[in-house]
């Protein structure tokens, strides 16, 4: 069922760095703040932390960090399972994939996963699906369905339906339809059988491209890394924007994405800034 312990919610703060080769082109991508929806009126665009910095000057380090001692932790000594709270609190913030699948018999499943990233050529998503502890290490319904049908959809999670999404991650029985249970709406897909989540503003229809089984220190299967090729995008017109060159991108203010932090803590992308990459000429200065 669930791909992560998605129980509870603490209102956190996630700072997002928008990457690009120059600040000005990036800034021109953004729609004026006044165009954001009325329900999302807080200004989110700020300045970088140290706008006056020039290389190779050193930046100030918090005294507690500068004077603190590093604690060495050998994962083989503590064991893989005890690495869980360490890894999910250290690798932050993480996007959340809201994954819809269907079994070969037509049973619907919906679950969130925060071991999630993506690539663009060809466009693919990468999701890690852990084994189910409540099933004695057996596969979660999401992974079992992907194995059977080789298809799934990823729906981007936004604030306006967060509590409904949270309700899908219980350790429910295999025959439970989490989308119906949480009151979310099924939207038919165009190229795959699993439905999309209508409440989401960005959907990705995916077909299995690769998968890699991982084994723990005891030799048992612990997770599957799934690489799914995106065969169709669906972007709600209210979040769809255009770059100066005419390429589609998703507006951050309108999307209101939620990120996973450590434990049961999540973050809103409410304070963001642009930071240009250094020019190659710096290496010759």
TrEMBL record:
Record keywords: Flavoprotein, FMN
* Entry superkingdom: Eukaryota
Q: Which InterPro entries match?
A: Flavin_Rdtase-like_dom, Split_barrel_FMN-bd
| Domain Flavin reductase like as annotated: residue spans | 89-249
Supply one GO molecular-function term.
Answer: FMN binding
Q: Which SMART domains match?
A: Flavin_Reduct
Q: Check the record and name the Pfam families matching this protein.
A: Flavin_Reduct
Task: Indicate yes or no for the key word Flavoprotein.
Answer: yes
Cofactor(s) listed: FMN
For this protein, the record's SUPFAM superfamilies field holds:
FMN-binding split barrel
Q: Does the keyword Flavoprotein apply?
A: yes
Family (UniProt): Belongs to the flavoredoxin family.
Q: What is this protein called?
A: Flavin_Reduct domain-containing protein
